[in-house]
Structure formats: structure tokens, C-alpha cells
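Blinded run. Sample ID left blank on purpose so nobody reads anything into the name before looking at the predicted structure. Input follows.
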Amino acid sequence: RIDCDLRQSGRLICAWTPKDMIALQQQCKTLATFDIRSEIIRQQELAAHIRSSLYQGALLLPDDGGLHPAQFHQGLVSRAQENGAILIDDTPVLDIARAGSTFTVTTTRGKLKAKKVVLATNAYTGPEFSWFRRRIIPVGSHMMATETLDRELIDTLLPSEALVNDTRSLAYAIRKSPDGTRILVGGRALSRNRADAPSVAVRLMKILGQILPDLPPVRASHAWEGNVGFTLDRIP
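Blinded prediction complete.
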């Protein structure tokens, strides 16, 4: 019951090349063996979901969906605190050492003992934990939101509520904002992980214009970035 705009809106994986389309058709057959629903959308049928001439077709995953990640995160924090968790921020952990059946955790504010330790640093693992740091690669991911747009325009460009991904090596994703008033674009906008907001906005606005050529000139209102934890075998 976390209020985070969770919606089972479906997701399109759009084929960038004819070869990618063949791969998506095979993926559709594979998913069926696991009773995962999917459907092939032919190129001429794509306009019912996205007004773009870039793609060769798509794989529709009707049971996928999206949420508002910041609201979801805040909801998790609130639920944890309501159930007795003590959250201590601005306290970097410098070392974790096993001491018999317990662990000694050294922080910048002192030491504490714990029966169990969960290392949940993902793409922000520091040099203190070099074994994990070598195995989880931080990959920069960038996001942009347009200014508030006319809903009729958005619905014309994105007629369905499905989230949209594509199969490029540097894949991009677009969606309507949860309130339906903006278009959100995500992907690796620049080669560097850390990037200033104007650079992110300029690059992603260019990508959005390529995907949706009927979009008139609009401005970006927000742009931001963060790291995604990536493994060499692409398995979480």
C-alpha cells in the first residue's frame, strides 16, 4: 500500500533492426514456455502505441509496468521506520570484520557489533569493499523530463500507456509521466557517469526528437543522473 503510482501498463521492447525483430520473435516463443505473456507487435501496428518510424516492430509485455521510484523509496523508508528499523545516514562504513559469530562494523562515527550484515551498496560500492567493487560496474544512467505539455499532444504521440524501451546497445526508454502531463526519457546520454543537467537534457532531448519526429520544439524542465549496478554476465 505504498502510494507510488504503480501501474501495470505494459511495456514495449522496440526492435531497432530487422535482426532485432527476429530475436524478439524468438524471445516471445521462449517466454511462452515459462507462461510469461508476450505479444509481437508488427511495424504497421506500432502506431497504436507510439508514433515513431524508427522501429521494425516490438515485443509487448502486458504484465510489466512502472512506478514513481522516489515515492517508492520514500515509502520503503517510512514502512521500515514504522516497523522499528533505525536508519542512520551520513555515516560511511569503513570496514566489516568477522569476530566469532558476529561482525564488527567500523564507521566514521565509531564501531558497532552485528549478528548479520547486508551489503546493499549496489552501484555505489566504495573502495573499502574492493572484492564487490570489481564485480559490480557502476554505469551512468541519465533521465530527463519535458516541460508540461498538452495532454492531447502526448496521447497522440504515445496513444497507449505502455512503457517504451528499444534494443539499441545504448538502449533508451520513454514513457508518459504518471500524471500524463510530461514525457520522460531515460538512457545513457553521455559517455561519462557524472554529467551536468544541461548536458543531459540537450542529449536526451535530441534522442526524444529522433524517436518522436512529430514532437514540436519543447523545453526540458528537469534532468538528473545516477548509477546502475551492472554485471558482466548481465545477471542481477
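Unblinding after everyone has recorded impressions. The CA atoms of residues 93 and 107 lie 4 Å apart.
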